[in-house]
Amino acid sequence: MLGALIIVFREVIEAGLVIGIVLAVTRGARGARPFIFGGVAAGALGAGVVAVFADALSQAVAGRGQELFNAGVLAVAVVMLAWHNIWMARHGRELASELAAVGRAAVAGEKSFVALAVVVALAVLREGSEVALFLYGILASGETGAALLLGGLGGLALGAAVSALTYFGLVTIPARHLFAVTTAMITLLAAGLAAQSIGFLQQAWIVTALSETLWDTSAILPDSSVFGRVLHTLIGYTDQPTQLQVIVYVATLAGIAIATKLAAPPPRAPKTVQAPAE
Amino acid sequence: MTRFRTLLAIAAALAGSAATASSETALELSIKDHRFEPASLTARAGEPIAITVKNLDATPEEFESKALKVEKVVAGNGEITVRLRPLKPGRYAFAGEYHEDTAKGELVVE
């Protein structure tokens, strides 16, 4: 039972953290919640579908389907996170300024909620399909069903607790700083996902350059441990990254940071007309 | 940028899907009753390796190896191919993540 709990918990930590962060980012924006929970529901539904077609997926593209699917899902999430940060840099001031009515901020922020809802959906989709497979395996084998299932559900509950803890931890940050903190967190999250995405492409031999391991800290902090998983999600920590993963990580970090800087309206400048980002 | 790279990657994969390297060492591995059969595989160093993992159980499994940097789901009664680049001599452990206590094995590269 404990084994099942740990396995499921390890899988759902990632999605749990992402949901917690996104909830904190959209705090105070009325109208964001339905988007986020819609994202969770869509992701869960998608996870079930992926689990059902797991075999077909791994047979696809000469046995590379799984890796391509994972890499693709991660890449889309990176784009969405980057876009959200850039969008917020443009409009963040009016959203964050205490003068802006909450209702207006929600309308202005709606576009970026969609991006965040997609990010949440993809996180749930990726982690959820493995959880679904695992739980299905328990049910199908009738091994020692009840106890294992209980463990699995316990793992899910713990994952939800991670979401809640992340959210409540973040919202204790004064509103003035919360924006800066979540912007940084989203940038790190995106860089980590980009590195993971490349990792899958390297696993499938689609990208072959720079696949040597750069360092090995698996003895000190394995990324399969709970704490390792948390760091893995938050800052993209990997205990044995390839050279290319580290390069992609740094490039994504720099790319989003620079793009966000460029998008930010110049301080104290007269109001500039901005083209809608579409 | 990442999106573009993924598109490129997919194109490359589709183009290369028909061609498999002939110099690959082909290995076979089955999963039965949540155990690997054989539990120990041997391969030569410096040659690319392709391991076909056949899951004879009705339950899904996740073939996982930190040492080989592989993490791949195998559906119940399904099979997957795990591709490995040329490796240095050594012992590389792998496991079935859903049944870690029984599904254990290693790849010996010499």
UniProtKB/TrEMBL annotation, chain A:
Record-level GO cellular component terms: high-affinity iron permease complex
Recorded superkingdom: Bacteria
Regions crossing the membrane: 6-26, 35-56, 68-89, 101-125, 145-171, 178-201, 246-264
Assigned keywords, A-Z: Membrane, Transmembrane, Transmembrane helix
Membrane topology according to the record: Multi-pass membrane protein
InterPro entries registered for this protein in UniProt: FTR1/Fip1/EfeU
Locations listed in the record: Membrane
Molecular function (Gene Ontology), one example: ferrous iron transmembrane transporter activity
Location, primary (coarse class): membrane
PANTHER family xref list: IRON TRANSPORTER FTH1, PLASMA MEMBRANE IRON PERMEASE
Annotated family: Belongs to the oxidase-dependent Fe transporter (OFeT) (TC 9.A.10.1) family.
Name this protein carries in UniProt: Iron permease
Organism: Methylosinus trichosporium (strain ATCC 35070 / NCIMB 11131 / UNIQEM 75 / OB3b)
TrEMBL record, chain B:
EfeO-type cupredoxin-like domain segment(s): 7-109
Keyword vocabulary terms for this entry: Signal
InterPro entries (UniProt xref): Cupredoxin, EfeO_Cupredoxin
Signal peptide: 1-21
Keyword Signal among UniProt keywords: yes
Keyword Signal: yes
Protein name: Cupredoxin domain-containing protein
Species this chain originates from: Methylosinus trichosporium (strain ATCC 35070 / NCIMB 11131 / UNIQEM 75 / OB3b)
